[in-house]
Specification:
Layout: E1 10-16, E2 27-28, E3 37-38, E4 49-54, E5 68-70, E6 90-95, E7 98-102, E8 108-111, E9 118-122, E10 145-152, E11 158-161, H1 168-175, E12 193-200, H2 209-212, H3 219-223, E13 236-238, H4 241-244, E14 250-252, E15 254-261, H5 276-279, E16 288-294, H6 303-317, H7 319-322, E17 326-331, H8 338-349, E18 353-355, H9 364-379
Parallel strand pairs: 1-5, 4-6, 11-15, 11-16, 16-17, 17-18
Antiparallel strand pairs: 1-10, 2-3, 4-9, 7-8, 7-10, 12-15, 13-14
Length: about 375
């Protein structure tokens, strides 16, 4: 976690399973029994420590304040062959997309990618046997104890990358229901933001916040330090032209994908400089990268050198990132000098690039259609 942000994506926790209860040393006596009979019951088993994924969490913020977790110990056995009650399990809830590692060995225990997925982290101790089966009652076994590293990697279809102030937050605000902070100074975005893009099967993409975003702000998600709001759950009902001609109307089902806005990368981000190194892990799971480039002359940057240097940073951090398909986006095309920079970029880079303007919304539909086509293609690769 970067200091000063409310987004937590790494946490160390200490987990202790419950100890087993002791067996009972007891003998049954009555007036009819010449020799006492052993009737000590077994001790109960200690509770297990379990990690379970839930869709109700989006960061590891809860583990900033609580890091020690312990399952309940088993109860001791008692006379008349009464077995002790087993301890209750300790269930630790984490968001989907969490990696569970052993802190000492850095060994990956499980990569959680589904909701309600359970992982046994520490097994509870077995309860000791009573003297009903052994000459001397046994003590219960000690439960396992582990130190666990939790690492969150966002599960988003699209990752938006680029240098500071290229318009990443503006783009995610335009095409999704996210509300990222937008300002004219670098590093406005200090933590990843998730948004949901929705459009309909007739080919009409919606990028206006009023058309699909939820009204009001989900305070709980904001309390998690995460710029994310729930997508609309209702299906949109529309009457196409054919229905107005007498045919029966139909329900248009929305299609959606998730997009992540990553804080601005700078040179040497792979080595920890700037904010990018903290959050580069969140684009490792994405299917597609949207590489945004500032084509205006006001930033004082060279679009061509920015393109090559940012790809170099991705390769230095993880070679698999540079192998992901990229959609190049030329932003701020409404400003002076952008057309000349775009022509020079196409001449030197010779890659397909989508010119857009987040200010005027020009080119957004073509960009979203290209994203849709690439995502569909990835499903069948």
């Amino acid at each position: 976690m970067k200091k000063g942000t409310g987004f937590v994506d790494i946490a160390n926790i200490y987990v202790k399973a419950g100890d087993g209860g002791d067996g009972c040393q007891s003998f049954y006596r009555d007036r009819y029994t010449r020799y006492p009979k052993p009737d000590g019951g077994h001790g109960g088993d200690g509770g297990n420590a379990i990690i379970k994924s839930t869709k109700d969490l989006v960061t590891l913020l809860d583990f900033k304040y609580k890091r020690h977790f312990k399952a309940e110990d088993g109860r001791n056995g008692s006379g008349k062959n009464k077995r002790g009650v087993s301890g209750r399990n300790c269930v630790i809830y984490v968001p989907v997309g969490c990696l569970i590692r052993d802190s000492k060995t850095n060994l990956l225990i499980r990569d959680i990618t589904k909701t309600d997925e359970e992982v046994l982290i520490a097994r509870g101790g077995r309860g000791g046997r009573g003297n009903s089966v052994t000459k001397i009652a046994e003590r219960g076994n000690t439960g396992e104890e582990r130190e666990i590293l939790l690492e969150l990697k966002l599960l988003a279809d699209i990752g938006i990358i680029g240098y500071p102030n290229v318009g990443k937050s503006s783009l995610i605000n335009c095409i999704s229901n996210a509300k990222s902070k937008v300002a004219s100074y670098p590093f406005t975005t200090k933590s990843p933001a998730l948004g949901v893009v929705r459009f309909y099967d007739e080919g009409e993409f919606t990028h206006s916040p009023e058309s699909h975003a939820c009204k009001g702000v989900d305070e709980w998600y904001l309390a998690q330090g995460f710029a994310f709001r729930n997508p609309v759950k209702k299906e949109a009902t529309a009457v196409p032209r054919s229905a107005r001609d007498g045919e029966r109307s139909r329900t248009i089902k929305p299609w959606s994908f998730t997009v992540a806005d990553i804080p601005g990368l700078i040179e040497n981000s792979h080595s920890g400089k700037g904010l990018g190194h903290e959050f580069l892990r969140h684009i490792e799971r994405t299917s597609l990268l949207v590489h945004m480039i500032d084509m205006s002359i006001f930033s004082g940057r060279d679009p061509v050198s920015d393109f090559y240097s940012l790809n170099k940073e991705l390769a230095l951090y993880d070679k698999s990132l540079i192998e992901k398909p990229q959609i190049l986006v030329a932003n701020k095309m409404d400003l002076n000098g952008s057309e000349e920079n775009l022509k020079r970029f196409k001449k030197k880079v010779k890659k397909n690039i989508f010119p857009i303007s987040c200010e005027t919304k020009e080119g957004l539909n073509n960009l979203l259609k290209a994203i849709f086509v690439n995502l569909e293609r990835k499903k069948y690769d």
